[in-house]
UniProtKB/TrEMBL annotation:
Domain PepSY: 51-111, 139-195
Signal peptide coordinates: 1-27
Keyword Signal applies: yes
Cell inner membrane is among the record's keywords: no
Keywords: Signal
InterPro entries named in the record: PepSY
Pfam families: PepSY (PF03413)
Species, as recorded: Wansuia hejianensis
Name of the protein this chain belongs to: PepSY domain-containing protein
Length: 199
């Protein structure tokens, strides 16, 4: 009986020691995790010096094979993504839009793309030298197709766009609770697509 009590006390002491040892290790792990988390956020270690916006622009122009004087509308934005500081650069040359993401510390080009775009700073609304029907013509076509007059509608929106190599107007308006959407060829006035949603 005496041996059983000694064995029981010994087991209890061993269990208490093991449990207190585990909780101490857990506390160390938590503080270590907090330190690593703070370091990952940049508060524990100073960030490397960033390259300038001019250097970023020069890298993007060089990669695109474009001279700086051939570029219009440049936009740069400093951002933080995937654990690093990056520059987002957007610019136009001719009818092409270029988008770059560049590492702000190393200057490494992380991603890029370019698309043919219509320069929306040129106003096609009145029917330019390319003989577009104009915003007023697009609105008239859409209203005629819907069988409505301008006094019957609200929230009219007419936007010029280039899609799939074709200039077009996107016309949207409401009549009561019904929404009308039209895509109209900017040169011919042909209705490319129409959508009517009844709410």
């Amino acid at each position: 009986m005496k041996n059983k009590r000694i064995l029981l006390y010994f087991s209890l002491i061993l269990t208490v020691l093991l449990l207190s040892g585990c909780s101490g290790a857990s506390a160390l792990d938590v503080s270590d995790t907090n330190f690593r988390s703070a370091a990952a956020q940049g508060s524990a270690a100073p960030e490397a010096a960033l390259i300038t916006e001019d250097e970023v622009k020069a890298a993007a122009y060089d990669h695109a094979g474009i001279a700086a004087e051939d570029v219009s509308f440049v936009k740069t934005n400093l951002d933080y993504e995937h654990g690093r500081t990056i520059y987002e650069v957007e610019f136009y040359s001719g009818n092409m839009e270029y988008d770059y993401e560049i590492d702000a510390s190393t200057g490494e080009i992380l991603s890029w793309d370019h698309d043919a775009e219509y320069d929306l700073r040129q106003d096609p609304g009145s029917g330019t030298s390319e003989n577009y029907i104009g915003e007023a013509g697009a609105k008239e076509k859409a209203l005629a197709e819907a069988g409505l007059s301008e006094s019957d509608i609200s929230h009219l929106s007419v936007k010029f766009d280039h899609e799939h190599g074709r200039a077009e107007y996107e016309v949207e308006f409401y009549s009561g609770r019904t929404e009308y959407n039209y895509e109209i060829d900017a040169a011919t006035g042909e209705i490319i697509s129409s959508e009517i949603d009844h709410d």
